[in-house]
Specification:
461 residues; alpha+beta; Rossmann fold; Dna Ligase, domain 1; D-amino Acid Aminotransferase, Chain A, domain 1; 3 domains; five-stranded parallel β-sheet; 15 helices; globular; binds adenosine-5'-diphosphate
Length: 461
């Protein structure tokens, strides 16, 4: 194990909002100084106040600030940082930025640029998975050329199919194809959408698995080649293929859990994966079979649920691994209890979850046993319209899922956000739904319930 002297002394947090606050807290816990960055729109954001020093990096639009690699590297160098933590989103999975940080002689708190490239590229990631016998969803090995190729795929694998924009992400750029007659029109619509949203209309095609749960394995890898699975999470409560509620551990049979954990570590070890990463799978609820869908080469929004059941501070470990520490002590972990995360966002459930930035006039977070709230929001904070709409991550733990749900009801009854519409009422509603309480929901559940195809109680406002 490398000596603690190798630990970076000062880290640039190349992010904003709750994750910037989270990284600053972890850094302070392990004795590392922090430099934060902010755009003109974020002068009043809490992440600016919890770092040792903060520097403005440009105007409000992310393209002019948080997405400017040169400006970030410049600030890191000018403030004497020896490491850069990218958080999630923005440049966190940009291999060129990671390389630029390394070329400037600083440590990237994440995997190598090569790992980011391999795992960030859909076809390369699938090939890597198949090479170590990790099952993948049947799909095209490269982007599809034309409708004829898509029809051929449909004839071979059957319907429904799923079109995925190669430049998509965060659940965006996906469309389901019900049957062959639907294919030409849906492909052309999907291409138009992708061209508009990402400036790239290339598409992959996969078999759409209608009754699945999203289960993912949290990994840590170190420079000595150890890869450890810290636990799994279920993220099946999704809206438009985006996660809304996540929990740990996932409710899968022990044999499946072990097989997924082994598949995930095998895959990561095959690319000598270092630092935090997550391997995502879909689990077929009828057959119990699991399929790799992608790997995220960064810390994820939902990492706290794993922290709560494992007792491992994942962000602190990211910093320790970057400093050369070995993770062997994490191999014999046992998860305890159950944790659920609720993403509270500035979105209006009454208007199809439209983002509603604006002034927060009241912000009262819950507390008491089993409650953790990760947030950058305070009373009087104005949610800017430029970035994502996350206000807080309410993370609730209990000795089992039932206790966690009871505590979640208590916490959500206490939680007050005034001034703008938000999703607290939606989460209270979710906690009354039999499918969620039983834990029998698939990834399709929430969209079906919200569209009225499942009978539910009304979503309160
Ligand atoms: P992104 O990179 O945009 O997050 P992912 O490939 O990770 O996209 O998938 C996001 C979600 O979309 C999954 O959690 C799942 O609910 C759904 N999904 C993705 N691929 C499939 C598939 N082949 N069949 C059914 N659902 C899928």
């Amino acid at each position: 194990m490398s000596s603690a002297a190798a630990r970076p002394g000062r880290v640039l947090i190349a992010n904003r909002g709750e994750i910037a606050v989270r990284i600053a807290r972890a850094a302070r816990d392990v004795g590392i100084e922090t430099v934060g960055v902010f755009s003109d729109a974020d002068r009043e954001c809490r992440h600016v106040r919890v770092v040792d020093r903060a520097v403005c990096i440009g105007p409000a639009p992310a393209q002019s600030s948080y997405l400017k690699p040169d400006a970030l590297v410049h600030v890191a160098e000018a403030t004497g940082c020896d490491a850069v933590h990218p958080g999630y989103g923005f440049l966190a999975e940009d291999a060129d930025f990671a390389q630029q940080v390394c070329d400037a002689g600083m440590t990237w708190v994440g995997p190598t640029p090569e790992s980011i490239r391999t795992m960030g590229h859909k076809a390369a990631a699938r090939a890597a998975a198949m090479s170590v016998d990790v099952p993948v969803v049947p799909g095209s090995d490269s982007v599809i050329a034309d409708v004829a190729e898509a029809i051929e795929f449909g004839n071979r694998h059957g319907y429904p199919l799923l079109l995925k924009a190669s430049a998509g992400g965060g659940g965006k750029g996906m469309r389901i194809v019900a049957d062959a007659t639907d294919l030409p029109r849906t492909l052309s619509l999907a291409r138009q959408e992708a061209a508009g949203a990402f400036g790239n209309d290339s598409m992959y095609i996969e078999k759409y698995l209608p009754r699945v749960r999203h289960v993912e394995v949290q990994l840590l890898g170190d420079a000595d080649g150890h890869v450890v699975a810290i636990g799994d999470r279920d993220c099946s409560i999704q809206r438009r293929h985006q996660k809304v509620v996540e929990e740990a551990p996932a409710a899968v049979p022990e044999t499946t859990r072990r097989a997924m954990s082994s598949a995930a570590t095998r895959l990561a070890a095959s690319v000598r994966y270092r630092n935090a990463g997550t391997v995502e799978f879909l689990v077929d609820v009828e057959t119990g079979a699991f399929y790799f869908i992608e790997m995220n080469t960064r810390i994820q929004v939902e990492h706290p649920v794993t922290e709560e059941v494992s007792g491992v501070d994942l962000v602190a470990w990211q910093l320790r691994i970057a400093a050369g520490e070995c993770i062997e002590e994490l191999t014999a972990l046992e998860a305890r209890g159950h944790a659920i995360e609720f993403r509270v966002t500035a979105e209006d459930p009454e208007r199809d979850f439209l983002p509603v930035p604006g002034l927060i006039t009241e912000f009262e977070i819950p507390g008491g046993p089993g409650i953790r709230c990760d947030s950058h929001v305070t009373d009087g904070y104005r949610v800017p319209p430029y970035y994502d709409s996350l206000l807080a991550k309410l993370v609730v733990s209990g000795r089992d899922r039932e206790q966690a749900i009871r505590r979640a009801r208590r916490a959500l009854a206490e939680f007050r956000v005034g001034g703008i519409a938000n999703t607290i009422g939606f989460h209270r509603w979710l906690l009354q739904q039999p499918e969620f309480i039983e834990g029998s929901h698939t990834t399709a559940y929430l969209s079906d319930a919200l569209s009225g195809s499942i009978e539910t109680q009304e979503v309160p406002t």
